[in-house]
Amino acid sequence: MGNFFDQFDSGSTGANYFDQFDAPEAPKMNVKALEWASQPGVVRQFKAEQEQLHGATEGRGPSFAGDVAASLGSGVLRGAAETAMAPVTVKRMMEGGVDWAMRKGDGLVRTIFGGAPLSEDEWNARLEQSQPAHGLDRAVNGVQDQTRQQMNAGLYAPRTTPGKYADAVGQLIPGAAMMATRAPSLMSGAAQLIGDAVGPGLASEAAGQMTEGTALEPWARAAGAFAGNLGAAGARSYLPSADRSVARATATVTPQQFQAAQDLQARAAVFGVPLTGPEALSQVTSGATRLPDLLRVVENAPGGNGTTNAFFAQRPQQVRDAVGRVLDTLAPQDANPITLGPRVAEAAQGALEGVQRDINRQTRPLYQAAEPQIVNNPAVDAATAAPAYVASLQRLRSDPVLGPQYAHLPDNSVAVIDAVTKDMQAQGRTLANSSVAGFNPERAAAYNSGAADARSIARDPAQGGVQAYDDALTQQASLRATQLEPLEQGTLGSLSKAGSTRQAYEAVMPRQPLVGGAQEIGDALTRIIMSDPNAPVGALVRQGMADVFDQAGRRLQGGLNQYAGAGYAKAIGGTDQQRDNLRAVLGALPSGGASVPSLDNALDVLAATGTRAPKGSATAFNSMIQDELSAPGVVGALATGVKTGGLSFLRNAGDAARRAAFGRGLNDLAELFVSPDSVQRIQAIAERGAANPLVQAITQTGMQAPIVMQNAQ
Predict the structure, then answer these.
(1) Would you say residue 525 has pLDDT above 80?
(2) Which end of the chain is more exposed for a tag (fewer CB within 10 A), N or C?
(3) Whole-angstrom Cα distance, residue 475 to residue 674?
(4) What average pLDDT does this structure show over 344-356?
């Protein structure tokens, strides 16, 4: 039994493409039926017989409309089955080609050496011996042959020329429909379906009928399908459409950026604030696409803005809910937010005092060695006779708490001098504070200078002072400079002085942070929490961030603020340093930084909502609405047409067609942009738009070839 390639043999009688599907006899199979199903021209022969049968039964010829409809339906069913069996068909075609080449090569070798080429039966017998009796390929091929036998016996066969064209088109519809599912909208999907099925189907059938009955017919059908596909691909490449606009707007986007945008859109959906494709792509490309401009046109223009307005109307509440969920991971909302700042300030002061206590513990041995020693020098007598010193000494001796501790020591001992000068320093700070009652800079200066003079003498051995006391003061000054003063001047000190919740939050998250200050902020909060585990640090951070969002989400004159999310992301994480500070703050909280990834994701998504271009002026789009409202009715159009001799009909028809195309494009873009898989679909459009029409046609024809070539005689 021959195959497709036998048609090129000299002296072949009727052999054609279907011979490739020859299958060796399998047990319990209707071999004659299978052979019949694979014979040359069997499909067309069956169609002709069925046509004669129906014609004899009905006594009249078929109607064009009925034949076209029935042929189209049967073609779709046959095409669906053949599309599913395409891998098997391609494999058998390749095997048939190898078989033909081997037979010709064997015959050539035998002829060169004076032998006779093997007959058809001898060659088939050799193939039969070289193949296993029962194999997977044999079973699969048998199933395919039986399937085709059932289709040939049961499906409607065209009986008119238009029916044959409809059948050819129908066979390509299933495969084209699979590709059309990736289209951005139903309308563009329908257009793609027409381009991938109708064009190549009609062209293939036309080429087949022109070469009907010849060895070139299968190749002509494939060439016709290629011509139809090339025309469709070329039209998609050059006709202005929504797809074309999207492809041009994303010409510079890389596959890596598409993937990043797809990930961002997926994360945004989980976060609860869905993003449009243009927003996600603009965010990951830093605004390197023109998609936001297209989105702005869709939002402004009548026709597309219905879809986008409904999408964006939900955003303010989506952002509010999503931000609330993130803040809840930090701490629950406190019932008395006004108390948070003072409570954290008190804890911060306690942390500073703890550092001071640590310094005192380190220097205590040196003080203990110096305290009992006496300072004997006339200079110290003069210093201790100053009025400020005498006043502080009297307070020390009469103090019910401190007095007894120094009662056993003389006035010129290091311990007493140290205690008195500490009191003098405290008095000097108090009197120098303008916000305290009794403010007196002059008295403050007297206390401060008197304390400095007395200590200077007491720690100088040359003036009768004590070296151990000097060592203690030197060490303590060094420790304060390196351990305490940076904390007092930094976040911890600012928090200790905060008088309100807002001031406390500003100390933690300053609006103008210092570059490199994230570690210091995190350290300050860690010290507070370690000093007082009950300090409401997390609640303070949550309250401050919630207050910032409340301001960012302030209502606008036109309603809810759809850019609240972007404003919030800018306010708390608009700079790299702000983000670093925020990560440091969250990392110091009792949650251990578990909320850092969720907040980073939140900022990415919220920042992307700001890439949406403002609507801007609606003047041009208002003109479009006015044109629609002022368009003449049927009667008016007829009257105008009579006056202008019919010229207005042409002009109005052109305007109507242009408006209709524009409206369809807007609807396509609107549906595409708000789709949950918008980025993926935009990428598919970009890839199709960038593809060479010739490559597209070759690819599409390659997928259709196993189907169209089977219609050959």
Answers:
(1) yes
(2) N
(3) 67
(4) 94
Cβ–Cβ under 8 Å, residues 207 and 223: yes
Phi, psi (5° rounding) for residue 374? Answer: -105, 140
Residue 636 pLDDT more than 90? no
Residues counted in the chain: 713
CB within 8 Å of 427: residues ≥ 6 apart: 388, 392, 443, 444, 447
Name the residue type at position 342: P
User: From CA 634, how far away is CA 648, in angstroms rounded?
Assistant: 13
Across all residues in the chain, what is the average pLDDT?
77
CB 688 within 8 A of CB 235: no
Integer Cα distance of 625 and 669 in angstroms: 19
Mapped onto helix, strand or coil, the DSSP state of residue 289 is coil
Looking at residue 546, its amino acid is A
What is the DSSP secondary structure assignment for residue 484, as one 8-state letter? I
Q: What tokens appear for 133 in the block?
A: 């009796």
CA–CA separation, 408 vs 414, rounded Å?
13
Query: With contact defined as beta carbons under 8 Å apart, do 341 and 503 qualify?
Result: yes
CB 171 within 8 A of CB 79: yes
Sorted by sequence, the CB contacts under 8 Å of residue 309 that are 6+ apart come out as 299
Distances (CA, A) of 417 to 85, 363, 456, 463: 104, 17, 11, 15
Q: With b meaning 16 or more CB within 10 Å and e meaning fewer, what string describes 6-23? A: bbebeeeeebbbbbbbbb
Residue from 686, 672, 619, 682 nearest 308 by CA: 672
Question: What band does 16 get if pLDDT is binned at 50, 70 and 90?
Answer: very low
SS3 state of residue 391: helix
The token pair that represents 230 in the structure block: 């090339």
On whether the pTM is more than 0.70, the answer is no
CB atoms within 10 A of CB 296: 17
Q: How far is 713 from 48, CA to CA, in rounded Å?
A: 12
Could you tell me which residues are beta bridge partners of residue 413? 374
Q: What angle do the packed helices 161-180 and 64-84 form, to 10 degrees?
A: 40
Position 617, amino acid = S
Instruction: Spell out the SS3 assignment of 311-360.
Output: HHHCHHHHHHHHHHHHHHCCCCCCCCHHHHHHHHHHHHHHHHHHHHHHHH
HEC string of 201-233? HHHHHHHHHHCCCCCCHHHHHHHHHHHHHHHHH
Q: Which of 14-28, 41-55, 247-261: highest mean pLDDT?
A: 247-261
Q: How many helices (H) and strands (E) does the chain have?
A: 35, 0
Supply the pLDDT for residue 147. 76
Amino acid residing at 13 = T
Residue 126 CA, chain-centre distance (Å), reads 60
What pLDDT is recorded for position 30? 43
What phi and psi values does residue 441 have, to the nearest 5 degrees?
A: -60, -35
What is the distance between the alpha carbons of residues 564 and 569, in angstroms, rounded to a whole number?
9
Alpha-carbon distances of 402 from 110, 172, 415, 454, rounded to whole Å: 126, 103, 12, 20
Tokens of 244: 């074309």
Could you report the per-residue pLDDT of 526-551, keeping only the tens digit for each?
Answer: 999 999 999 999 999 999 999 999 88
- Between the CA of residue 102 and those of 8, 118, 123, 127, what are the distances in Å? 14, 12, 10, 11
CA separation (Å) from 580 to 264, 513, 574? 21, 10, 11
Strand, helix or coil for residue 613: coil
Least confident of 126-130, 291-295, 391-395, 407-411: 126-130
Burial class (CB in 10 A: 0-12, 13-18, 19+), 361: exposed
User: CA 437 to CA 333: how far, in whole Å?
Assistant: 38
In contact, 673 and 278? CB cutoff 8 Å:
yes
